[in-house]
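Course exercise 7: structure representation. Students receive a sequence record and must write out the corresponding structure in token form. The form below is the worked example handed out in class, using GDPD2 inositolphosphodiesterase (515 residues). Read each field label carefully; the graders check that inputs and outputs are placed in the correct fields and that the protein name is recorded exactly as given.

STUDENT ID: A-19
EXERCISE PROTEIN: GDPD2 inositolphosphodiesterase
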Amino acid sequence: MADPPGCCRSCATCLLCLYSCQWITAKKEKRKGLRTTKCDYSWFLFLFCVFLFTLVWLYFAIIILNDFHNFNEFIFKQRKLWLDWSLLLLIATAVLITYSAVLLVLALCLQLCGQPLKLHWLHKTLLILTALVVAAAFIGLGIKWAEEWRSARVSLQATGPFLHIGIVGGMTLLAWPLASFIYRTHNTGLKVFLLFVYCMVMIALYLAPLGITSPCIMEENQLPPKPALVGHRGAPMLAPENTLMSLYKAVDCDVQVFETDVMVSADGVPFLMHDEELTRTTNVQAVFPERAALNSTTFNWTDLQQLDAGSWFLERRPFPTVQSLSAGDRYQVTEQRIPSLEQALEAAKQSNISIMFDLRPENHSDYQSFVNATLEVILQSGIPLQQVLWLPDGFREQVKQQAPGIQQVYGRKKLQNEKEPLLHVNLPYQDMSSEEIRQYRQDNISVNLYVVNQPWLFSVLWCSGVSSVTTNACQVLKEMKHPIWLLPSSTYLMIWIVVDCTSFLAILWAFLLLK
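STUDENT ANSWER:
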């Protein structure tokens, strides 16, 4: 068989060398009578499937970056080891996708050059390992982090139109090696089968936009107002979480609400702390090594004031933004101490922002006394009660009676025939669809969704009409003046028609040119 036009013998030899790990010139290959067997085609199909499998995992890896700080915190609680695991995830994923993509490109080029697809056993072994690693990653995701499957559903509202264009383009390019193979093979049954499958896939892709829905496919004048920003523990990318510095940094980001977590010390002083243990965000292991593993509520306020609540931020660098802090900010970080709720309320009052908090731990035997101590501090602080957003469900009725001006925020959806209608809900962003958000907006129910860090996610929720979002990245979302993309339905329809027609003509050209 002669080399196809445009495929020089040296190029074919190099491709064979990389794919088969053997230095076989095209001339020797013909002399030996090597041909692609059914087994070789089976390995090519396996390679193609592994590439698609890894590509899907890459998509998931990018999507879960929004929530990866939670994973880092989870690992720290389990192993007392802090590391930005997202970096390792992206590096490993990039290696796997690059390897499978290079092999696939080599195979397609060999097919176009009319050379045999003799995959070396080393590549076969590595492909099997790649498939196993990605499968293990998906299984682990399903077991330990199942809510990320719902995150993927939300992400499709942002990426659906662009994924459609990309997949159509990829399948169109695949028409060239497919046409080359069909004209070379003498197996009529295989030809018919491949053409049938390819045509069915392309027809499905051409019609896919009929099932693609996105809240950002709308007219410009229909875009809801930009959601308000709620600082998750302040501005944790710019300052140590749950500190006064973090609160003031959040104010600089134009947040309207400072979201935090409150615990009560052994001597009855409410203070800001998220974890039940102090090890992650203070130097308790150095100051009180024998008590480091105890619950935060077992420490009195005098002990808590001895702890450094800022230096860990510079040492562990929970976010990449830590590296860009100024010298002044770095010094201020080292001066941070655990703030009391009283100090936080005073700062919120002076900054004219609201404060929303959880009261932890909910299962504590003295939880009612925690509620009483917290309410007492709020009422004595002089902050306007409408600036306080109360999240805890425990003893909520008592709170309503003693401080009716406090805004009650519920961590659930509204119930049918509810006696007292909800005015504020606070839920994970995965728990509400765009349709539910629109319905709540029509019912004048304020919806806050957490934790939203990536611009693509913020854009989808903005288009959906959410009232506010809780975020770690207030400095990023503050700068967004518009969703990442917004398409009128007429423009999207035009793009759909152009992409599908261009693809069809390109496929037709490939089959006619290679005939």
